Amino acid sequence: MKTYRIDGAAVGSKADLFTEIGRAVNGDGGYFGSNFDALADCLRGGFGTPENGKFRFVLTDYKHVKTALGQEDWSTLLTVFTSESVDLWLAA
Length: 92
Hints:
It comes from Mycobacterium dioxanotrophicus. By secondary structure, the protein is an alpha/beta fold.
C-alpha cells in the first residue's frame, strides 16, 4: 500500500499544511491545492494519489500540526480523511 508522509514539523499554518501535502503527494514543489475541498479531491484519487484508493497518509509531529491549525481546522482535516475513507495515521 502506498504511504504518503506529511512532515508535521514543517507546518506552522493551514497554508503550510497544504504545501506539505502537495510535497508528500507530488514531490518537492508539488502543487496540491489550498483548501479542504482540494484535499477531498486528492483523497478520491487521480490527483497524485492512486485511483484504486489503496493508499494512506502518515502525519508526523501531529500535535504540532493540531496546535498550528487550531481546533476547527484540525477537526475539518480529520473529517475530510474520514469522509473519504482514507487512513490518516498520527505519529508523534
